[in-house]
Design brief:
32% strand, globular, 4 helices, hydrolase, Pectin_lyase_fold/virulence, 27 strands, Pectinesterase, 11-stranded parallel β-sheet, Pectin_lyas_fold
Length: 366
Amino acid sequence: MVAAAGRRRRRCAAAILLVLPVVAVLASSSAAADGSFITWDDLSTPSAAAVQGGVKAASGGGARELDTIVVAQDGTGHSRTVQGAVDMVPAGNSRRVKILVRPGVYREKVTVPITKPFVSLIGMGSGRTVITWNARASDMDRSGHQVGTFYSASVAVEADYFCASHITFENSAPAAPPGAVGQQAVALRLSGDKTMLYRCRILGTQDTLFDNIGRHFLYNCDIQGSIDFIFGNARSLYQGCTLHAVATSYGAIAASQRSSAEEDSGFSFVGCRLTGSGMLYLGRAWGRYARVVYSYCDLGGIVVPQGWSDWGDQSRTKTVLFGEYSCKGPGASTRNRVPWSRSLTYDEARPFLGPSFINGEQWLRL
């Protein structure tokens, strides 16, 4: 009886995950437009009329008031660079502005500052629209100081209510061997609150995605790296993402920086797929109270049998939360996991299974 009830709960949970986007779309269609919520429209390509009208308005000197800003390397848009388009968004912006980035490889560093919320960065397909740079933590700035991991990011987002879709963020610095110093090379840093990425690619090797602070939702994205390629102290939900390892020996997926029991941060991976090369830890305890959970994930055979790392500090084994629930695949066996990781029950996993983990009901209408 108990086993049957457990199977019913698992089937029910899986069904909830599958229908969630449909239910959310229906909810958003009846909701009034509200800038404090992210909707599917914020992630979608603007209409041809809006784009053409915007270009015409720019020629008349009204570029700073545009709802759509077009980036095109051939000069047919408002800006030839992505940063140039971001610069056109007024400081203190209070309405959604879409930056449409036409196909091309944009070799530049980009920052969306904290003063410019409600920006959508929309590509024309993640394989066709690429923002790339090659900075590493050991690189020197103009004053002769190392830039550090934080400022190595090809794209840095510091504003709230940021969206991105159908675009690639890349750091093309050479791959770092295990143990290398100063070779961290961030493709994307997320430091704003209430951020959503949809069908984006985030490519790098060591420290690819700096999931720094804030609440973030990454849906159907591809994230590539080798060593701690998702790291930081944000509270983020990764749903339906592909995690692709390019490690040549050992590596790790997630490094949570959570340093106290009071911090409500951590990473939840739901319905994700792990592929690639090397031998990977599911997570490492960067912070003493690191929190990482995998649920309904398909884990390839590249997961090390013990699964998790205490970052060389055994005292952290008493305070971390490293959990797995209902995962599958050759890397999902928990038989040889470290004794301080957890095979979660449904009730224990439930807080991590959906948008409520990131308070999505307060800022998502999808």
